[in-house]
Amino acid sequence: MSAKTTKDSKWIVTEEGTDAKTIRQNETLFALSNGHIGTRGSLEEAERTKEYSHSEATLVNAYYDSEPIQYGEWAYGYAKEHQTVIPVPNGKKLAIRLENDLFDLTTGKTTNHKRQLDLKKGLLTRSFTWENTQGHKLDVKIERFVSYDYPELLAQNITLTPQDDGCDLQMVANLDDLKELGNITEEESNDPRIKAHKERRFQSKRLEDFDNQLLHIETNNTHLHLIVGEKNQLSDPSVQSHFEDGAESWKLETKKGDTIQLERLIAYSNIFHEESKIEDKAQRLTTILNEASAIGFKGLKEKHIAHMEEFWELSDIEIVGDDELQVGLRFNLFHLYQAAGRDGKRNMSAKGLSGEGYEGHYFWDTEMYMLPFFLYTQPKIAKHLLNYRYTILEEARNRAREMAVDNGALFAWRTINGKEASPYYPAGTAQIHINGDIAHAVHTYVKATGDKRFGMKEGLEILVETARFYAGWGHFDEKRKGAFVLNDVTGPDEYTAIVNNNYYTNLMAKHNFKYAAEMVEAVLESNDEDGLGVLKRIGYDKAELENWKKAADKMFLPYDDEQQLTMQDDSFFHKEVWDIENTPKENFPLLLHYHPLTIYRYQVNKQADTVLAQFLFPDEFSQEQKARDYDYYESVTTHDSSLSRSVFGMMASDLGQMEKAYNYFMDTALMDITDLQSNTRDGVHAANMGGTWMSMVNGFGGMRLVEDRLHFRPRLPKDWTCVTFKVQFRHRLIKVSISKDDTEYTLIKGEPLVIRHFDEEKHLK
């Protein structure tokens, strides 16, 4: 049995029963986070019943350890070290003993076992009745949330109601410092997307002389420091607690119907680097725990729910006519929101903070799939995510030098600290399109928000340095009549590697040149002091501007005149087509069953590549061209990447193929709930979740940003009655309600503006 959505609510994901496989799988679905900390939806007693748990991990964004990457044969410029986000002390562990029995789902009898994730409130609730081996019963309810008001805080409330008098009841709350971690399976060890942990990667020490239980931990190799603290409060003050080996316990005699409540607050400090700051950080965390405890679980929960209400007021999308997709969509938006770093120093990983897949690395996923959601609903968070890229710009410059490019910056394909962490360069460093992806995000952010200060400072520097790299990597090819070419690159499709003139990469580089030139000219024309300071500091030469314009104008974009098809790269059409239809189902994803060189020899796509380029710049292609390319590339795409389906769905909307768009959206919206990719256990597919929002707003809503104006071309699937969403644009809040016969645009907040609905201008006041 899988987790199922309740029929009486469009906001709740429910799991019923005690099926081990379901509970194990749903540790990911029921994960909670806030951009700083994240904890998987594991059972409180999971360590005693391993069959019910895949990973109990609690993670802190960017709290990682490193170790040298081992190569059989090393070459210059290879990535040097793994960067791996590691589990930190687990504050969810709770033991409940009734008489001589310790509770778990295999002891005694558990009935009415239910877990519910309330998306509207951001609250995970577990409830059940346990009958021990002697026939004594206990009603249990456990609530859990990760706070936005106190980002350090994981809050839990345990409610126990005995059905018998005179039984010995004991509770033990343990802040587990992970001295013992579980083993990994052979399947997990062979999957390149996973780096599971056999043992903890930090040293721990319990701190004395503070009001609360505190742990100081330090990673083995990166020497990152963290303070973890705990404060518990029992509803019956007459019951004294006992401390032993980091665990706090309470013993009492039950009274039938008398409820006992235990409030647990676990706090995780900010990451710090200097050992000298341990005492200050510990005192700060103690203050937070004491303040939160004074408010109490009920008060903290009320504040948390109020925060979630504000989020949904701006970010909800309502579908009338499809309740299953409605809750799936909200599930994705919920997880997307809780995954984002919010301090300008950390980003959001491919799995958010819901699991250990991809080692907690940040990819291009953020800028191309996740950032649009934040840009138009939570622009402050969008700015924080882009600021992270600015903080690692110096490492990107260093990487460009390693790649023998004397000027500019190359952002790492996968990273936490800014250094390249991908050991497989054909599908890592070769994906230099990441520069254009980040530049596109910077450009779009400035256009959509009007944030000129960011544009002429951090944005300007990123745009110039990324353009410089492309200018140094490529060259004007006399054998192509002086066209600007980019050779030996890999596009978004990782089943086609190290090629010349990947269409997507070249088009992104072309626009990167344009964005940089546009911003530099804006600085020079306005004589902006901040911008001029940036240009002086980074050694800008006016000759660069003309070179970028020339490279953009002469960018080589491969096209097959005979077939009238856009070429994914110079060599793609010269390869044999992979027989997808007759490939055994169990051989997908191909990357786990075929040598890379076998895959590279064929026309086969892991994900959208050329089609993604046409989605991003639709006005540069005719509808007829997009339709021909769509049909061709869809036929050779396996969708082995979770990033693929949303793009094909949005392009289907653009082409008016609404049934196909709906089917792709079904897969996108329910991907993790249905475990479509068969690896949800390792964490949610955060980029796909961003693609869900884009599918609604850019796909069915037809929203595009053209120059400085929003354009809409809405189309609804046949079974939907109405779709409503809101977008923020240049300090304005716009509500869009799309029905079968009409679309209504309402300016809720901000100055009047003009938008375009198909070919009609609409003035909103």
TrEMBL record:
One GO MF term attached to the UniProt entry: glycosyltransferase activity
Active site: 494 (proton donor)
Keywords: Glycosyltransferase, Transferase
Domain Glycoside hydrolase family 65 central catalytic: residue ranges: 330-694
Annotated family: Belongs to the glycosyl hydrolase 65 family.
GO biological process, one term: carbohydrate metabolic process
Domain Glycoside hydrolase family 65 C-terminal: 703-763
Residue span(s) of domain Glycoside hydrolase family 65 N-terminal: 14-268
Provenance organism: Alkalibacterium subtropicum
InterPro entries, per database record: 6-hairpin_glycosidase_sf (IPR008928), 6hp_glycosidase-like_sf (IPR012341), Gal_mutarotase_sf_dom (IPR011013), GH65_N (IPR037018), Glyco_hydro_65_C (IPR005194), Glyco_hydro_65_M (IPR005195), Glyco_hydro_65_N (IPR005196), Malt_Pase/Glycosyl_Hdrlase (IPR017045)
Residues the entry annotates as binding substrate: 364-365, 606-607
Stated name of the protein: Alpha,alpha-trehalose phosphorylase
